[in-house]
Batch of 2 targets.
Target 1
Amino acid sequence: MLTAVILFILGFVFLIFGGNWFVDGSTGVAKRYHIPELLIGATVVSIGTTLPEVMVSATSAAKGIGDIAYGNAIGSIICNTALISALTIAIKPADVEKKELFKPVAYFFTAAVIYVATSYITGYFSRITGIVLLVIFATYMFTTVRSVLQGGVSADTSDVNIEQKDENSTNKGFQDSLLFDILKIAVGATLITIGANLLVDNGTIIATALGVPTSVIALTFVALGTSLPELVTAITSLAKGHGALSLGNIIGANLFNLVLVSGVSMTIQPFHIPVEKTIGGINASLVVDIPVMLGVMLLLTVPSIIKGKLYRLQGILLLATYAGYVIFQFAM
């Protein structure tokens, strides 16, 4: 049991460092070939920083552990919205750009309609559903890249801010070389893969030993672990006085969790929605997990789009919701 816990934590560490190195290396290569920074944010960084969630869910789906594939995606959305974003809003509310939020929000709820309909009608996430979600992802990426190239709306960097670098920098040496960037990509991808396997395998062992449903571990601990990049971004943005910026990052990350993370998992290996707990004879996922996911996203985005402002009350309500959600997961 102790070994499983240590390896589980090690998996988190590998995911965090692997994700950072993969993004840094990819961004370095892209900039070296003079690709516009906004385009890097819309593609390389967006996908790279979502790799922890993608790899964890894809690995679990391939191993036939659909509970983790499901719980990681849904849990990450809830954690991003009701914990990470809520903290920044509760501490320091800010104004937001309504126009920049509308597109990712519209895509998220479009995908959510498909996800929810599938959950309640069939309870089975088929390969077709996964492909449809991936098509939505591809469409979002295409329209975002096109907007950037045409000088339209600013790109959503999804999870992180790209560190500004001085183009006139004269730093030399191995750490400023193309080879070093490629090395970071390779090492980062390797660590992400190893970390995902450690997380899935040992998360399952821990859940079994504690008698806790695997989906609960995925909806809470795994989801929080794979959402650490968003947490770091939120804290950094808040410290620099850009609290509203983290909102766009969170919404972008949530969209990617729904269409990319879930889409890849379903396409690799279709699975049924977990039925490990019931409420009044009804699957708890349908009564709690999915409604909470939709509820916190609506609470976060609707006032922001209508008023163009974040309110401290939003953050407090979201935090209270997350606390209640976690308590429910382990109490039931």
Note: The beta strands are 124-125, 271-272, 278-279, 282-283.
Target 2
Amino acid sequence: MKIGDKIPEVLGMDQNGKEIKASDFKGRKIVLYTYPKANTSGCTAEACSLQAHKQELEQLGYAIVGISRDKQETQAKFADKNGLEFPLIADTETTLLQQLGAWGEKKMCGRSSVGILRTTYLVDENGVVEQIFTPKQIKTKIHAEQILDAINK
């Protein structure tokens, strides 16, 4: 997925068992973010940053949608525990993650592994990617501020 590409229509099932589609957000923009694992420190910090700034993002026309490989039940517990009021897609088969290009090789402490690449896509009202935050750019504790800075430029 690169800037100018259209996101897939079917995004997947959220933590409540609801199918989420790009067309559900017609006329609205989306902060579509991928995260490695619910209930880990970085992913919790990122989700809470987004939740804390949800109202500001909504006023700018953005909805928030998170995606990880976690099961639906795990996503539901993560959302409840942290008061997250946005869809968290349970992409257990990594279908959407692969379509987005957020699944691949990553290195940590000199080791290589395959998994979710923490990435954020800012998507316009027509489902087209306008901006991408790569894993190296994302600071989990202040990610919402990073997004707001980018939007307000």
Note: The radius of gyration is 14 Å.
